[in-house]
């Protein structure tokens, strides 16, 4: 059975973007793959996180993932910092990856902004830790949103260079699995910017914890243009906000943007936004309630995560110990 690895940062409340671009697609994989899912708190601190918030957000994220359908009995669900094999392998990868490769990473450029000299060095080597997350499990399938594709290509370059430098065939090739219709959900305030849990504007995103009224309000306020919806896809050209809302409705109702336009073409946004809000509320409300129910017993969520870490460690430890041996480290015992 192919092994899947994917992760999500506890850098806030998971958004509709995280859900449609990643989490939702992880759920069926539990039946078809050996599935490993990780709340990547070490990635999260590559930008400032309030220490008091981070632990809570990590637990909240785990509860949200379970509420979305990840079953800790059918997958391995754990917290990155609980399994030290990730950072041990990341150090080796820091030494394998070339600076020129990292310089090409667009996410670093986006997140570091103009003041690059002042960005944390962790943000710069983030892709090396991500490569380690995956290769520590010899995972070969990585379901992610379209924005992570470049990092996966880098993870393959790192594996190839490691194998070449040490004359082995140790780290396998990763098969990026870029997700469906709404592979990239955009901000509700700016259709050219991706929806992000750390966007300063809460109005820019739907959080999985939002209640029905909040969802309806955010959709009502979502930026659009004055034209009605077109009936065909080419009518969405140059209209990023309209395209985004159409993509979201298609993804949430399991149809295609073409079908959405066939059905709603000619409608003004007042009507269309009502339909979209209703579909979102129907889909997301049960998730929010289930996450709340789980968080009523935080100790139980923590216990599930500890068990997940034990299972993750059992896979990653021997792989990373072997990588260390290949590099020439003296065995610790
Ligand atoms: N807007 C999005 N559309 C589609 N997929 C998305 N993902 C994130 N945003 C969108 C996918 O969610 C998975 C987990 O993401 P992450 O938490 O590891 O990091 P991220 O991509 O940086 O997500 P955010 O929400 O934008 O977090 P912050 O604000 O902290 O940077 C990934 O598979 C990603 O593709």
Please describe what this structure looks like.
With 333 residues, the protein is mainly alpha-helical. It has 2 domains: 3-184 and 297-327, Rossmann fold, CATH 3.40.50.620; 210-292, Tyrosyl-Transfer RNA Synthetase (Orthogonal Bundle). It has helices spanning 16-32, 41-44, 51-68, 85-96, 99-103, 106-112, 121-135, 149-165, 212-221, 240-253, 257-264, 269-295, 298-327; strands at 3-8, 34-39, 76-79, 141-144, 175-178. The strands form 2 sheets. A 3-stranded parallel beta sheet has the order 1-2-3. Strand 1, helix 1 (16-32) and strand 2 (34-39) form a beta-alpha-beta unit. The longest helix is centred in the last third of the chain and has 30 residues, at 298-327. The chain is globular. Bound molecules: adenosine-5'-tetraphosphate (AQP). It catalyses: tRNA(Trp) + L-tryptophan + ATP = L-tryptophyl-tRNA(Trp) + AMP + diphosphate + H(+). This is Tryptophan--tRNA ligase. It comes from Pararoseomonas baculiformis. L-tryptophan binds at residue 133.
